Amino acid sequence: MRNEFTAIIEKDGDWHIAYCPEILGANGQGRTKEEARESLAQAIALILEDRRQDALRGLPPEAMQDVVTVQ
User: Fold this and answer.
1) Which helix H or strand E contains 45, and what residues bound it?
2) Which pTM does this prediction carry?
3) Domain limits, the chain
4) How far apart are CA 53 and CA 39, in angstroms?
5) pLDDT tens for each residue of the chain, 71 residues long
6) Which of 11, 3, 55 is nearest to 36 (CA)?
């Protein structure tokens, strides 16, 4: 699955701090801009997977599951 999100990256001393305004709680950091972006990408992936698992836990057995693609 491919998604694109906004990465806001700010320099804070020797560190780069990153966050995603679309995904509340998704934050990353790194010594370089690239490290901060990668850290943020990992945080986004973990949050989305956790939300998916949490949502699927409560589904009734007769519920149908399908895939929708947003471009």
Assistant:
1) helix 33-57
2) 0.86
3) 8-57
4) 21
5) 568 999 999 999 999 999 999 999 999 999 999 999 999 999 999 999 999 999 999 899 899 999 888 77
6) 11
